[in-house]
Amino acid sequence: MRSLPLPLALTARLTPVAVLACAGWALTSGPGTASPAEAKAPRETGSRSASAPSTTAVSKTYTAAPAPCDSVAGKTVASLVPGAKPAGKEIPSTDTSVRRTCSWNALKGYDYRWLDVSFEISDSDEQAQKQYEDRMAERGGGGPVPGLGDTAYSVVNLTTEDKQETREGVVLVRAANALVTVTYNGSDFENRTAPATDVINKGAIKAAKDAVAALEDGGAG
Predict the structure, then answer these.
(1) Cα 167 to Cα 111: distance, rounded to the nearest angstrom
(2) Mean pLDDT of the chain
(3) 103-116 exposure pattern, b = at least 16 Cβ within 10 A, e = fewer
(4) Contact at 8 Å (CB) between 58 and 124?
(5) Residue 151's domain spans which residues?
């Protein structure tokens, strides 16, 4: 098989750690994220009668992010990213109880595929919903995905760089106080085209269903 120089888009994709880590921090540092000062309960003063209601911390449905590289079934990885190692590669995080991401990518022949799955745990359902709405507003087009989490949204976009097409799908899911984000894209370097919209969209949704199931199985408090 003849060798083929990789376009700039692929070269950028093959050095994901710094880019994804920065993106992950940006996504979770917006106005929806509570600061330590905001999260601290106010100090009580004076006495309280025995009949007064006690103040307790809000119970969170999910208290930790599941292991992201175990969140997508091996057969799903094999079908979406042919040639990728099933174990994937976890992206370093400053707090793995709150934020974890795993990526899979492979070039098989002339077909390139990339998949990543990210989990973020918020302090409340309301905070997660605010983050969900903010991120959905950043993307144009797309639409809802029924029956996935409490609310879910998918969008697919086509980009062209150096005459090489890449089609990318993103599925964003809110399940109680957790956010799940799946990114799936692909390129064909032989004819410089990209997979069909339906292929990318269905693939991203399939991975998202696996990820949400893993969250429900392993992230509940």
Answers:
(1) 12
(2) 81
(3) bbbbbeeebbbbbb
(4) yes
(5) 65-218
